[in-house]
Design brief:
Shape of chain A: globular
Radius of gyration of chain B: 14 Å
Largest interface: A-B, 26 and 26 residues
Radius of gyration of chain A: 14 Å
Largest sheet of chain B: 6 strands, mixed
Number of strands of chain B: 12
Oligomer: heterodimer
Order of helices and strands of chain A: EEEEEEEEEEE
Number of strands of chain A: 11
Shape of chain B: globular
Helix content of chain B: under 10%
Number of helices of chain B: 0
Distance between the termini of chain A: 36 Å
């Protein structure tokens, strides 16, 4: 069964360092998303991406964050200068365009720990 | 604005019994989708079941069924014959289907389910 894959599964980084989280969405999907979940808290929307541009972003997705799809398969989330409060599980997700129903499938997540 | 409420922070169920996890939602959009996801302790987010707002019948997927009551704006998840592996966090989620660019899913706060042997 096709799935969304994410790398790395866990990354520890020093505060102020840049981090890139990578995702390979399901191949026929057109919509891509990043979510985050701070430990013990709810899942929060960060950004959605369609047709090679951001379609929506939340207040969390400030200038420190960026997304791109550099080669038509990978979908990356970059955090330019990490802060302690960026420590969270980051989920990539994707969905295809189907009238009447469109499930969003999530990857297994990337744990980011900022120290 | 859309909002998801899950009023049960934690639930216990005896193995092999059925359990209902509550979810209510609020939206002014006429067309929306409702989802349930399972998050085990390993952290991944697993899709369980989907219900469209215009679906005539309640969704079922194996041991999972969704008790959809549109007028009450509730979408409770029923797990039949609970298994130890069902112990996890369960999230109710919703997505607006009316927009041409498919909208994000928003999540409720989750319910932690523990299955007791």
């Amino acid at each position: 069964e096709p799935e969304v894959t994410q790398t790395p599964s866990h990354q520890v980084t020093q505060m102020g360092q840049e981090v890139i989280l990578r995702c390979v969405p399901i191949s026929n999907h057109l919509y891509f998303y990043w979510y985050r979940q701070i430990l013990g808290q709810k899942v929060e929307f960060l950004v959605s991406f369609y047709n090679n541009e951001i379609s929506e972003k939340s207040e969390i997705f400030d200038d420190q964050f960026s997304v791109e799809r550099p080669d038509g398969s990978n979908f990356t989330l970059k955090i330019r200068s990490t802060k302690l409060e960026d420590s969270a599980m980051y989920f990539c997700a994707s969905s295809e365009e189907i009238q009447g129903g469109n499930t969003i499938y999530f990857g297994e997540g990337s744990w980011l720990t900022v120290v | 604005a859309q909002k998801i409420t899950q009023t049960q922070p934690g639930m216990f169920v005896q193995e092999k019994e059925a359990v209902t996890l509550d979810c209510t939602y609020d939206t002014s959009d006429p067309s929306y989708g409702l989802f349930w996801y399972k998050q085990p302790s390993s952290g991944e987010m697993i899709f369980l079941i989907y219900q469209g707002s215009y679906d005539q019948q309640n969704a079922t997927e194996g041991r999972y069924s969704l008790n959809f009551q549109k007028a009450r704006k509730s979408a409770n998840l029923v797990i039949s014959a609970s298994q130890l592996g069902d112990s996890a966090m369960y999230f109710c989620a919703m997505r607006d289907l009316a927009k041409t660019s498919y909208d994000k899913v928003i999540f409720g706060p989750g319910t932690s389910l523990s299955v007791i042997p």
